Amino acid sequence: MAKIKPQALLLQSKKKKGPSRISVPTIMLYGLVIAVTVFFLFATYRHWSRRSMIQTHGDLSTTEGENPFIEHKRSDVDGPKYAFITTSKGLITVELYKDGSPDIVDDFVAFCQKGHFKGMHFSRVIKHFVIHGSKIDKPEATENWTSRGKHYSRLDTSLKHEAFMLGTSKTKHEGGGFDLFITTAPIPDLNDKINVFGRVIKGEDIVQEIEEVDTDDHYRPKTPVQINEVTLKYNT
Question: Which of 42, 65, 131, 199 has its Cβ near the most Cβ atoms within 10 Å?
Fold first, then answer.
């Protein structure tokens, strides 16, 4: 048997033990494959997770009353249910008649959002009749009704205008204003002059306190009584 020379044996041993070197392009290729794989897996997870959330949200929306967010949006569309009239005498809470007077309530809400009622005075106060808030001083707007108001006790209280009803003039105002009337007694013969769009449900004592202020010969309060702010409350 032929003997292997020591020098050849050493070279053969080095060839067997020496590790093979990986080239830089190969490393970059492996890194790119791994990055693409991770990105694909993450995108797939995100897609199915989002799809699951949308499906769950759709299932909840089909059941009325189970999603408070949807209920809140629906309430905003329906409009506010209550108005809080803060006066210099106290707070008056009014329930709005959206179903019966939708256009008037919409106008009222728009004026509230513009801050129209802030600083408005009750320009006319007629006992056992109405308190009238307006930014336009026109005595004839209420004085031509007082003769009827003095005979309020003879009126049929079953008719539309009961006490503590909130309304506004049917006549258009100069400059597109919006005035407020709160009846302090049943006044059914105002049907042709006032559009009723709400009812006082709390703060009747404040209305009566305003009604009792001293007035001059033109029914204007000697001590100013004003509306500080009107805020709205939606259904929740």
Answer: 131
